[in-house]
Write a structure and sequence with these properties.
Blueprint: E1 3-7, H1 20-26, E2 30-34, H2 51-60, E3 66-71, H3 74-84, E4 89-95, H4 106-110, E5 122-124, E6 130-133, H5 140-143, H6 150-154, E7 161-162, H7 163-166, H8 174-177, E8 181-186, H9 194-201, E9 209-212, H10 218-221, H11 223-235
Parallel strand pairs: 1-2, 1-3, 3-4, 4-8, 8-9
Antiparallel strand pairs: 5-6, 6-7
């Protein structure tokens, strides 16, 4: 049995893990998800949040050895948490996530990819302290292989994201880099190109790199398969 803490990516919240939590519990694990500051039901104004706030919120949610899973932008959040205090982190798992490279913020990390499917969708607020994704042209970048009803559930819940958080590098040290780490590539991802995910995963041990035949949202498209893979990773 393992304890999982599930961390959402940009513009999402704990709500996106609704199907994964019971799937993990059915496999004998404990699992929960939290809203990072400014997301979901958390009342913090998003334009006042920072990457440090995200990392601290994760640390504050940990009381016992826990496997921490970060999706997409959540890769930066979970790494920041490890840099704040890795005491209760058993393993970091990056799910089609950005992994921090030295000196690069998430915004800079995104630009290392050969393709930029998300850039045309980003809309800055008037203050330039937050941004949203314009999905008026469709949700294919996020949910193209997800079950009917996914758009109706997810779209009203999407929120703005902090530019300060995405514009801040993680000061990497052995605190995060010495932890057991795994990467899950989503091979049908239309938000973070799979080739770029594989490039980021090259910095992981080969035996700690896995794949799902999924879009950017495996928590909706294949929650059971995702839970089974997480189960496999912690059982290694």
């Amino acid at each position: 049995m393992a304890r999982f803490l599930l961390i959402h990516g940009a513009a999402h919240g704990a709500w996106c893990w609704r199907d994964v939590i019971p799937a993990l519990e059915a496999l004998g694990h404990e699992a929960r998800a939290i809203d990072l500051p400014g997301h979901g039901d958390d009342p913090t104004p998003i334009e006042e949040t920072t990457l440090r706030d995200f990392g601290q919120a994760i640390v504050d949610a940990l009381e016992e050895p826990t496997v921490v899973v970060g999706h997409s932008m959540g890769g930066y959040s979970i790494t920041q948490a490890a840099e704040v205090d890795p005491t209760h982190i058993r393993r970091l798992i990056y799910l089609c996530a950005y992994t921090p490279w030295p000196g690069l913020s998430l915004s800079q990390m995104r630009m290392q990819a050969d393709e930029q499917p998300l850039v045309p969708l980003i809309r800055l607020s008037d203050t330039r302290r937050s941004f949203t994704f314009d999905l008026s042209g469709g949700t294919g970048n996020f949910y193209h292989d997800c079950p009917p009803g996914t758009d109706a559930y997810a779209l009203p819940r999407l929120c703005a994201e902090s530019t300060a958080a995405s514009g801040t590098p993680v000061a990497l040290s052995q605190k995060s880099q010495d932890l057991p780490r795994s990467y899950i590539v989503c091979t049908e991802d239309r938000a973070i190109p799979p080739d770029f995910q594989r490039k980021m995963a090259q910095r992981f041990a080969p035996e700690d790199v896995f794949a799902l035949h999924s879009s950017h949202s495996p928590f909706f498209s294949m929650p059971g398969d995702l839970a089974s893979l997480l189960h496999k990773i912690v059982a290694m």
